[in-house]
Structure formats: C-alpha cells, structure tokens
Amino acid sequence: MTGSRARRILSYVGIAAVAVYCLAPFYWMTISAFRRPQDQFDNSIVPIRWSLENFTAVFQGDNGFGRALLNSVIVAGITTVLTLIIGIFTAYALARLQFRFKNALLGLIIATTMFPGISQLVPLLKLFTDIGWINTYQAMIVPSLGFALPLSIWLLNAFFRQLPFELEQAAMVDGCTRGQAFRKIIVPLAAPGVFTTAILTFIAAWNEFLIALSMVNEKDMQTATVAISKFTGVSGFDQPFGTQMAAGVIVTVPLIVVVLIFQRRIVAGLTAGGVK
Fold first, then answer.
1. pTM score, two decimals?
2. What is the pLDDT of residues 184-213, one digit of tens each?
3. How many angstroms separate the CA atoms of 80 and 145, rounded?
4. Residue 222, phi then psi, degrees to nearest 5
C-alpha cells in the first residue's frame, strides 16, 4: 500500500514538473506583456503594476501587426482547406482502392516528412524567384501544404480504413452513387479525423516562420510570426521587448482557447483510427 501510494505521488510530481516546464515560458511571456514599458526588464514573478500599454503599442507605430494577422489567417486558412480537400481524396483512395505498391506509396508519402524544412528552402527560393512567386501568398501556402499533406493523409487514411466497406455498399444498394456514398456516409463518419487534421494543420501553418521569412520581404505580405521578429517599437528606436511579448500573447491565446475547447475531439481524432 505504501509503495503504491509512493508511486502515485511520484507520478503526480512528474506530471506537475512537466506542466511547469511547458507552461513557464508562456507564463513569463504573459506577465512580461502586462508590465509597464519602464518595467520591462523587471524580473519579479508578478508585475509591480499591471498595464495594457504593450498591447496598445502592438497596433501602433510602424509595426503593421494588424495586416500581419490578416496575412496569417489567409495563409493558414487556405493551407488548411487545400490540405483537407487533397488529403481526404488521397487518403480515401489509398484506403479503398487496391493496387500494387499501395503500402510502399503510403510509406513514401510519410518518408517525405523526414526531410527538414530548411533543406528545401534554397531550391524553393530559387524556383519561386524564377516563376515570380516571391512576395505572394502562394509562396507561403504551397510549401506549407507540402509539409502538412503527409501527416493529414496518414491520419485520414487510418480513419477511412476502419470504416466498414459494407456501409458504402449498402448506400449504393439504396440508390446512391459511389460519390454520394462517399459524401453522405463516409465523410460524416470520418468527421473526428477531419476535424483533428484541420486543427493540427491550421496550428502548424499559423506558427510557420522560416518559409514566411524567406519567401517574403515586403512588409505588407509578412505573417504575424515574421512581423513579431521584426518589431522596432512604437518610435522605431526603442526596445520592443514588451511589445513582442504582447504580440506573442495575441498570436498564441486564440490557439490555446481552440485547443482547450476542442481537446476531447482532438484526442478522439488522434486515437480513434488506431483501434478497429
């Protein structure tokens, strides 16, 4: 009994340690954002005086943060929609159709995720320069799409495989075409997987930095993550530490809220395809 209680206590301590390790940077970013500009280098655990000056400064001066947020929404939104459209049809074909080397093809798709993004940066930069895509949305969307598709195909393929083929056969017996059976029967049943894929893709595209930094040099086309890294403060000469922290909170909090609201769906989506 004593040993079981000790293991339970150790497990709680371990969970608490991991939680503190993960949440400490976000906590420090948050309290730094609420400090007054003159207190931005104060190391106290709680701000001496709470202030919203950093949050108002984010949208002032020459930061262009409002436009950057809009660019992030456009890039992440279009990337998510295209990933779902292509990923759903590809995963369904891999799950339902029978052809040679199907497993090898699926393995090849997953193998593409092994290559670090930075290794593809120079070839993509050269290609987009030659075709005139620099400083465009597609220069950020297409690479993000390439990185998001393998994972989405893998997740959705697991969902489609666990759905009995008899459901489609029964729908077609009742008069549905294969397309109607797919649209009305299979896709709704795979909704947890589709929703999970959409959330993960949007978060990855929203947080993407390296591609957006490399493919865009015009301020009006920068995403929020790039804009934060280039903050120069309200006057253009002051230290924008507090402003950067406030912008980080603005960018991060919506994602945290979405994950907390839909955490059960996300967990269900990640685990439902693993067991038949």
1. 0.86
2. 888 888 888 888 889 989 999 999 999 999
3. 8
4. -70, 145
